[in-house]
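Reopening this one. Same input as before:
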Amino acid sequence: MNGTMIQFFHWYSEGNGKLWDEVKNQAQYLQDLGINAVWLPPAYKASGGGYSTGYDPYDLFDLGEFDQKGTIPTKYGTKQQYLDAIWALKEKGVRVIVDIVLNHKAGGDEKERFHAVKVDLQNRQQNISEPYEIEAYTKFTFPGRGTQYSDFQWNFNCFSGVDYAEGEEGNFIYQIINDHGAGWEGLIDDEKGSYDYLMYNDIDHRNPYVREELNYWGKWYHDTVGFDGVMLDAVKHQSPQFYQEWLHTLRANTGENIFAVGEYWEPGHLELLLRYIDATNGSMSLFDSSLHHNMRKASLAGSDYDLRTIFNETLVHTHPQLAVTVVDNHDTQPLQSLEAPIEEWFKPIAYALILLRQDGYPCIFYPDLFGAHYWGYGKDGNEYEIFLNRVDGIEALIIARKEYAYGTQRDYFEDANCLGWTRDGDGEHRGCAVLLSNKDSYEKPMEVGAHYAGQEFHDFLGRFEHRVTIDENGWGNFSCPAGNVSVWVPVS
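Same output, byte for byte:
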């Protein structure tokens, strides 16, 4: 079966412990659609307690089990609810992808005094002060959990930088002078001098005790919940050598070829994704932010966009085996810091491009399948009400991938406003013909294979009522509506 993943959350997912129960209750539906992997949000206690999305991690060992940060459950539910959701998925043969945030920690329990130096916000390699002593919340003792599961306590020697110092006013980044000296970890790019520091207490992966603890935690987490894959958050800000080592250790310790996808979000900069793949020796897939960038441009430009260029400078074109393709995610959705949503009219086209072609591993965004309604604050400080509609035809597109997107692919990319391709099927599955347009309605002759001669194809999305009869050479004249997509499949 063709693999399809879903990101089963968004930034504004409802709290009060409802998400884990929803995952459990939707397991059968996801299996029926052909979704065979579910990416779940960070499941451990964060500094924001029951209100946090999880990207401000406090205690990686607290999966909603201990009274910490004002709550026992996380925003998404208790540990038992989490385990129940995972078991429900696995019972249906759906793989579990867990969200891993190892770039930083937040919500320290105690303050410590140590030496640090202020650095320029736009060039973190440039010091703007002499070393001096500051006080910050860098000690993590986890009083609610104690030493259960782990007795490791974090202190300032485990971190390379902070953005808060007691008694200091203003917006600063403080590079910590710890037992390893000073300096940021080596990255593949020189953005901001070094973009090692992102937020909160930045973990220093050069500390051997930190690496040992994170390696131990990875195995503990796998033994506890039985995940099948990991989504590695903010890899852009972490040493590629660390994750190469961490993944190697995790796979060795579990004896499983754990799937991994990294979030290196650099829209329009394919060369950085390729450089990161080289630096990690291809040990993980990456989200194809370059393809998302192209689709965003296409959705804004309408018929002025040349669809023949949609895969130019994309990861799915250059490294299809390592490309996880997305239409949107929790960072690009409206009101988020990287807001760049695909326009609604283009989303059926975008999903056809990632679901029905032979290359890439597609990931569906929760609101595109289920819809979403939320309130949030924009960059202007004002509050907005947002409605995200279910993508037109999304269920049929996902099912079409499961049932028809197999076999040899023939492309018909000769028209700037209309793309087509066919899949001729394999020994177990029938094929399909896909036609899409960002302008007018189109009709295009395409070959599906002589083995379909005399058979009729119908539009699986229901855009058209007529049928297409395949000629003796395996060709048919297929149609699509203006600014939309049609998927033609053999009549049963």
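So the earlier flakiness isn't reproducible anymore. For the record, The mean pLDDT is 96.
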